Amino acid sequence: MSNLYGDTHRALQREFDTVRLADRLEERLSRERLNDDDRAFVEQLDLFFLATVDALGQPTCSYKGGDPGFVRALDPGRLAFPCYDGNGMFLSVGNLVAHAQVGLLFIDFAKPRRLRVHGRARREPCGFGGTDWPGAQFTIVVDVERVFPNCPRYIHERPLAARSVYVPRGAEPPPVPAWKRMDWAVDVLPAGDPARQPEPKSGR
Length: 204
Hints:
204 residues; alpha+beta; Pnp Oxidase, Chain A; elongated
């Protein structure tokens, strides 16, 4: 019995004669907890992709970025990451509140490697489990249920050009994104949003 494959997966595996290969990969690579190598890999990255599903079954995938180490392995069974200020839609977080099952895809584009993590996510306050991220609104904790690496052969190698200036760092507030000062947005921003303040004039 497989914990990873269902009827539709098996049908495709039979069609393309990959049942034996799929079974071997599950046997050798799939696990229920993060090992030390997984934890080190996740914690050195500055991005990942988060898949969620809403209450009606509609999926979405979002990019999450920060400085290296912004995702933390609290222990072999839990990951945590910050939720920073975004566009206020809360699509991913609203989804995981309604339907806790999530998928995380971690990719290193400089040294091609990727890792998938499946689990159940929940919202926690900042500082949960000893975590603390400057500028975070709250913490997302993922209880890990399945971990498995993927072949990296189709990952395009991309050297890092620059990290985002919008990631909160220390006491200095990040710059205001330009879209928040546009006419269609500025009057509906949350109370206290820095973009509600007059734009500083540059001196000479």
